[in-house]
Specification:
CATH architecture of the largest domain: 4-Layer Sandwich
Order of helices and strands: EEHEHEEEEHH
Number of strands: 7
CATH superfamily of the largest domain: Endonuclease/exonuclease/phosphatase
Low-confidence stretches: none
C-alpha cells in the first residue's frame, strides 16, 4: 500500500509491508543536488512509522558512509541520524562515478534504518548507464541492525615524518573564507590531503592516489 508524504524538494515513493510480523515502511528517496535540503522532510518521514527503511540517493557527503569529504548537507543528516537513533548502512564500493576526471568516485547511495533489526547486504552492480551504478539491497532479519564494514585507511606501519611533510607540502588554505561554499571546499580539501597523506605515509604502500588542490 503506497503512503503519501507532504515534503519539500525530496522525492520519495513508499510502500508498507510486513517483516517478521512487524509493519515496516520502505521508502526510496532522491534529493537533487540543486535543491535545498530541509531537515523537516526527515522528521516527517520518521514520524509516520516506528519501523522504517529508507533507501537514499541524497547527494549528501559524509565520511560516516564512506564519502571522502563532508559537506553541510551530510553534516545535517548525520546530526539528524544521531538525534533519532537511526542506523546507517552504505556499500563498501563507490556508487557514483563523476564525468569530471578531477573528481573521485564516491558513495552517494545509503540506507537508513529505524526501529527494526535487519541485516543489510549491499551489492553495487557494474551496470553503469549514468553516473550512478545501481545497488542491489538484500534484507534479512537479524538480532541487531547491521552496518556494512568499512575498509581501514591505514594498512601497515605509518611514517609520521612523511605524513607531516605531505601535509605541509600539499595543504592550501585560502586567506579569506567568506562563504559557505568556500567552507565546504576547504573542508573537502583538508580531508583529501589528510587522506592522501595517510595513504602515502604507510611504508608498504605503493601507487597511492593523489588529490588535486583546492580551487582558487
Amino acid at each position: 500500500m503506497p503512503i503519501i508524504f507532504d515534503l519539500h524538494s525530496l522525492e520519495v515513493i513508499s510502500i508498507s509491508l510486513t517483516i517478521n510480523n512487524k509493519s515496516v515502511t520502505l521508502i526510496s528517496a532522491y534529493q537533487s543536488p540543486s535543491k535545498i535540503m530541509y531537515t523537516n522532510n526527515y522528521e516527517t518521514l520518521f514520524s509516520k512509522s516506528n519501523n522504517l527503511i529508507l533507501l537514499d540517493d541524497l547527494n549528501y557527503n559524509h565520511t560516516k558512509w564512506g564519502y571522502i569529504s563532508i559537506n553541510s548537507r551530510g553534516r545535517k543528516l548525520q546530526e539528524f541520524i544521531n538525534s533519532n537513533l537511526a542506523v546507517i548502512s552504505a556499500p563498501s564500493t563507490p556508487t557514483y562515478f563523476p564525468n569530471d576526471i578531477n573528481r573521485h568516485p564516491d558513495i552517494l547511495d545509503i540506507v537508513l534504518i529505524k526501529g527494526i533489526s535487519v541485516n543489510i547486504t549491499q551489492v553495487v552492480l557494474p551496470e553503469l548507464d549514468s553516473d550512478h551504478n545501481p545497488v542491489k539491497i538484500i534484507l534479512s532479519i537479524a538480532t541487531n541492525a547491521y552496518v556494512s564494514p568499512r575498509k581501514k585507511l591505514i594498512n601497515g606501519k605509518p611514517n609520521w615524518c612523511t605524513f607531516s611533510q605531505l601535509i605541509t607540502d600539499n595543504l592550501q588554505i585560502p586567506n579569506k573564507i567568506n562563504s559557505m561554499t568556500t567552507v565546504d571546499y576547504v573542508i573537502s580539501h583538508l580531508i583529501d590531503i589528510i587522506t592522501m597523506a595517510t595513504l602515502n605515509c604507510v611504508e608498504s604502500s605503493q601507487n597511492r592516489p593523489t588529490y588535486s588542490s583546492i580551487p582558487k
